[in-house]
Amino acid sequence: MEWCRRGRGVLIDMITGQCLFGDIRFEYRGELGHASYCHCSDCRRHTGSAFNTVVAVSETGFKLTGGKPAEYTTQGESGRGITRHFCSRCGSPVFGSSPSHPGRIYIKAGALDNPENIQVSHQSWFSSAVPWAFISADLRAFEKGSVGASDSLEFSK
Ligand SMILES: [Zn+2]
Ligand SMILES: [Zn+2]
Fold first, then answer.
1. What percent of the chain has pLDDT over 70?
2. Is 155 a residue whose pLDDT tops 70?
3. How far, in Å, CA of 84 to CA of 75, rounded?
4. Is residue 82 within 8 Å of 98, Cβ to Cβ?
5. Neighbours of ion ligand 2 (CB under 5 A)
6. Ligand 1 centroid to residue 38 C-alpha, Å
7. What end-to-end distance do the CA atoms of the chain give, in Å?
8. How much distance in Å is there from the Cα of 71 to the middle of ligand 2?
9. CATH for the stretch 11-128
10. For residue 24, which ligand has an atom nearest its CA?
């Protein structure tokens, strides 16, 4: 994968990504749109995480280079339809689309081969954000794994 520069509105050579098993592979050539977090409850459940992180791109530059994602369409909290494309074998969410925004693809930033190049510009549905969506830079961090961390399953009261 080759990056010229990072950020929104910048022409890039190509970004690539894949599902966990690598069955689903995609590439995108063109201008990057906004990258954003979504805190809505649908995105939280869909990702199994605190929030969803997506990069908006144009459908014309987006190409599946491997596999065929499964998909379903639901009404989001906004009342608009959202189609979620995922790998039916490993379950990874790969990208989204919406009949309300034809021509756009919302790539899951975590599926990118070089996710560190994404710069998030905003967050949506902040009213639904869980209190632990924010990670303080002061929180104890392990460079790899978490060996030495408490393995207590006690929840904070
Ligand atoms: Zn959402
Ligand atoms: Zn997969």
1. 87
2. no
3. 11
4. yes
5. 19, 21, 23, 87, 89-90
6. 5
7. 45
8. 13
9. 3.90.1590.10
10. 2
